[in-house]
Amino acid sequence: MPPDQLSPATITPYPDGPYLVRGDFAVTDQEGNQLPVERRTIALCRCGKSRMRPFCDGTHKLIGFKAPSGQEPWPGA
Amino acid sequence: MAGRLIELPPPRGPLSEQLFEALEGPPHTRLACPGLIEPGDPLADDDLQLALYVAYELHYSSIAGVDEGWEWSPSLLSFRGALERPFEEALAELVQPAEATELESVGAALQAIVAEDPGPPLSRYMETQGTKEQMLEHVVHRSAYQLKEADPHSWAIPRLGAAPKAALLEVQFDEYGGGNAERMHSALFAKTMARLGLDPTYGRYLDRWPGITLATVNLITNFGLHRRRRGALVGHLAGFEMTSSIPNRRYGNALRRLGYGREVTHFYDEHVEADAVHENIAAWDLAGGLAAEEPEVAADILFGARALLQVEAHWARHLMGAWERGETSLRSPLVPVAA
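^ inputs. structure came back:
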């Protein structure tokens, strides 16, 4: 269940899609400058092909990106 | 902004004529049920879709000269039911039934359904070749829904259990601007219209919307007003969000190519980012959550998504077909054709 804004941040990978981030979080570059975030829940790119990284723009659907929501099994496991 | 108030447009045939005539009188007037309605293509039938649109609009808006008591008048509801029947039958014919394997994971099934969008490449066309006139027409068509964006899906709120309801509200809160009226998506669209020189008044272009454009809105309203279609309503929202971010980036690119700035493209740019969030919540937490709570509506969730894609495809074919013939896609052109 998504936490409210005062709860600690959670990061949830969605099936074949981005990471959704909820709760109390900030997105910064490596110098610590905050990136503008204008909504309670954001989607971070997981496929690497977004044209507005680090945020998701839906491109994963065009490239057939596949990944489960949970942790992937170790190769050969 | 004042409350919504639309004007009755001129009727487009016997159904809208009969309805509009009755609406000018008091609500208790006996509104005789129309006989068998058999239009060639119910989805694009101007008369049927306009009559249905106005019957539905009583739930969204005031109508000049029409008593608001009509909204729940039994004779109006029975007349509306007669209009809904051919519309619903046409949808059922167009939409393939869900397969048993799809119901095992509604989220995954929705992903597969939107990946096979049956429509023509309208957004790609607009991005690369669409003219300014075509873009303006596109915006006028879309204003039929965008000026009340999110409203019909809110009818699902009281009908869902806690988990899917919370997911729906997570999406809707963002649609409504996160509590900021100016950032509400319908308000962003109105701003885009105004900057394009179009009139953002709710219902202003009703007379120009062809039957198939009215059908895109009647579809959501039909799902929204009938509790039994809560699955379809949720599937419609999921399908809508899942087919939004990429086309909206292309529409934004089309406007940039035509020389417009950020104040015009903001609505589209916002939807790229917002719907990249919403589509995941809608497919997995909302639709998947509803299917887990009420497995008996799972098939209707997929119906709602497929119906959306089919009606949108029909609409997109109408636009591109009219433009290929060098005609307006509206019922009358926005700008006089140069002699």
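Chain B touches chain A at residues 107-108, 111, 114-115, 163, 166-167, 170, 173-174, 178, 183, 242, 244-246, 249, 272-277, 279-281, 284-285 (CB under 8 Å). The mean pLDDT of chain B is 95.
thumbs up if we can close this ticket
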